[in-house]
Amino acid sequence: MARPIRNRPNARRVPAELSRDDLVREIERSGTALVAALALVRALDEHGLLRLATDVVTEEDRVLAVLTERVPADTVRRAGENLRALLSGLRDLDPDTVAVLAAALPRGLREARKAERDRAIGWLELATTLRDPDVNRGLRMLLGFLRGVGRAGPAAR
Amino acid sequence: MVRFRVDGTLREADDGAVLLEALRTLGTDVPSLCYVPSLGPLQTCDACLVLVDGKLVRACAVRVRDGLDVDTTSPIVRTQQDAALQTVLHSHELACTLCDKNNGDCELHNVALRRNVRRQEFRPKPYAIDDSSPFYTYDPNQCILCGRCVAACQTLVVNEVLHVDWTLSPPRVVWDNGVDVDHSSCVSCGTCASVCPVDAMMEKSIRGKASHFSHLAPESRRRLVAWTKEAAPDLGPLWAASEVEAASRAASIRRTKTVCTFCGVGCSFEVWTRGREILKIQPRPESPANGLATCIKGKFGWEFVNSPNRLTTPLVRDGDRFVERNWAEAIGHVAARLTSIRERYGPDAIGVIATCTGTDEEAYLTQKFARQVLRTHNIDNCARYCQAPATTGLLRTVGIGADPGTIDDIESADLVITLGSNTAESHPVLASRVKRAHKLRGQKLIVLDPRRHEMAERADLHLAPRPGTDLLVLSAVAKLLLDRGWEDRGFLDGRVNGLEAYRASLAPFTVEFVAAESGVPPEQIVRFAEMVHAARSVCALWAMGITQHQNGSDTSTAICNLLLVSGNFGRPATGGYPLRGHCNVQGVSDFGCLPAFLPGYQKVDDPEARARVEAVWGTPLPTTKGLTSTEMVDAILDGRIRALWILGEDKLLADADEAKVTEAFSRLEFLAVNELFLTRTAECADVVLPAAASLEKEGTFVSTERRLQRLYRAMEPLGDARTDGEIVTAVANAMGAGWSYAGPAEVLDEAARVAPVFAGARFDRLPGFASLLWPIAVDGTDTPVLHRERFAFPDGKARLFPLTWSRPKDVPAEFDLTLDNGRLLEHFHWGNLTYEDAGIVRKVPSTFVEIPPALARERGVQDGEFVRLVSPNGAVKARAVVTDRVAGTTLFLTLHDRGDAAVNRLTSDVRDPVAQTPDYKGVRVRLERFAPDEPRVPAIPLTSPRGKRRYPQPGVNVDQKWARADYRRPGG
Do residue A3 and residue B320 have CB atoms under 8 angstroms apart? Predict the structure, then answer.
């Protein structure tokens, strides 16, 4: 042994840095995923979204400040409450009934489109139409719906 | 088991079990925020209220008994529990998505979620966050005052710093008398942060790192929380958001069980990492040696793992510089040089020093390399510097050179004697078990040590014998026991040989003679004997203050003799415990890195043992023992040894007489070193091989208790570093060994075939936090307490070993002072690891020498000035600390230095004749003022806990909370 050596050639290495071998290994292992990721990055870049995302993240504190100032919390709260109320109402619907109505809706819309083109309807024609069993059934359902809404309305409560 | 009724159903539980635990075991959900089994009932949160026999009580404070009628579901119970929870929530702002604690283990989050808490009324407190400590923060605004941190500090680790000041409005946790954390007496064990159920007490290393949003600036965070609270006053949707966010953290945060890399206590814990970044250390209740306790190094001392100073590429000497080489070149170079030297000078011209921080499997491979590949028994480890004399003492008397029991035994003993051990600093977590037993249970404590360190301050009896005279005191006490008929006659008759010869050998050790020679007052010697006599069980713990003397083996033997005379071996809560200093110094010795022993302490000159090993290895072994690590230095100087391979040992600094070792290294033809850093030893090497840290490897350690525990790889080795096992295997194969181990599990399997004491050791028997204490039978049965039926001698009887004592040789009068030396809590040996940690350096920046006040006055030395210590072997320079921790003519130098204050510039190569351990503690020096006119700088900064008073409390003092006017008694 000669005299002690105090310096070493790789002293500048950043500790958490991957070695070159590690990096090459990782790239080889992830080849397909990297190509796909690059395609996504390219698309984001072409549409300006990459820059947008970068800028938003970089300026997150300012963006957050603007967001919390400009978007009133009570608006969000009301929106949230409305959404919850709607969801609650939807929860109480009978799925079978909703399925029937959902199936009937497109047909009704088609008929409505056709009827749009018809000439104006008179009283006699209205009476005749009421005799059509489909129209009659639809009207009964509509009246029943209105009755239910009326019963659940604020005055009834 | 007793039967009791829970919500109308008859159930069973252990008689006397804590009701809360019993209910949880039975699957009954009772909320609680303050209860931790190891801390006992704190009764601060009131969340576990249940009806027992019609009365509203806290389930944590009730013991199960026969016929108990427990109601956990009545409306009043639910109402009271919810009310308690809401009270807790006044003190803690729920912002779980932004919180670094919300990793599935925030207990408040989990309880509130389970109880479907939808609203909280948070009441901010007028206190600022305390982030003064380099290691952890305290946020009073998030503190729920459960008192866990206080209980941990006061009754678990017994550092006695924290308390809740219930007189404040609102109350808060305070350090000492109200100073900030950094200036308090806090020793930074971090146990408070480990037990905190919320994010009030949190490790800085994880703050801002765990949540995807916690990195936000404080003002942004405040805005976002305020906005969210207004936008979503109902917590329901926020629970969902925080749960999703927390679950997503698991993708990048790993929790890996490991075993501490510092001292030999064997603390185990999870290390939380993200990639290479260490987020925190989290001990677990099931950690067998430590439970939830840690020390500053185990909890916070891991910065070295990612230090930019780590070695990451093999280095080969080229003249006066190192050049980087790839592994193939470096391994080829080492193999070629070792082969050449072996062929030229013979196998015994090479020595190998195994690393005490490597795994058992690496140790096994290292000694196998020496014996099978090199064909020499010149293999040793750092136990030579510390505990080899203790092993000798145990081998002479009880036949097995290892701790006879566990830390649980130490904690449950009636009397603990520590000798030459600054336990609270060198083995802090083990010390906490003694402090706990002493404080809570009235365990008695005797301390023999020249310094008045923490354990000495706590002791019921502190004896400060002159260095090297402990043997006298121990023998005098043994003589007193026998003279007064206080020996354990039945034990001696049935289980011990050699009583009469031993009794005769004690004749010179009269109290008067011993008092005169040791400086211990006669009444203290008598009191010592009385306390041993009064105790039903005694454990003796000893360390370097005993072993690092010329008579280290004999003094260790004297300890064992005393324990045998008093019947304190072979049953629980008894025995002699050398406290091992490195994380795996026990395992490296157990697995055969000793010149006289094959794995499992089978003697190399025992043909039967050799045959057993040869059958597995397929090669004949040399028949005579090799050289110890210290003898290797002599052998280098006289030309018998030409090459050394040192793994993970800074031998230049660790061995006594640095000048002699430096000279020896200069004569080596080849020196290879495995290391994490370019240590002083590595600087001398021809080849430096970058080694992996413990977090980067798989394997097992054996702790001081003989406990095998697994460590799992938390991260890949840094750069191109490799594990010592991989390096040894590569060199062995380059020299033609043909090893083909699939991994460390296979190595342990082979060791189990070679060494009967490890017969049943297997990786699959050590999952997670499981552990086994050797000897381990083939069926996996382990042995927590040794010698229960027989001692490890052919007739099964222990042996009293007669001893003599001779006064140390005189040294020139100019060396008029005795130099004690040793560890500090914060640092580890030469500081190669701990000086890489900025927080630790902030607490203790450098080494220093303690000088008694009277001596300092006499020599005109003032605190903070540089002094020189000169011995016959060399000199060091360090700043003075004037303190009454030392007295008379004894100084104390910390050993954490790699340069001008390295203690082994002063020590000589005088050794214990049996164990060959240097007499590190027998140094005589003179004291010189070095630069009296230079500005004085305190060596101990104000931010160090050293010298500060403790603030003991019985616990959380919950009665003070209950006495407050604003406390509403549940149901009252």
Answer: yes
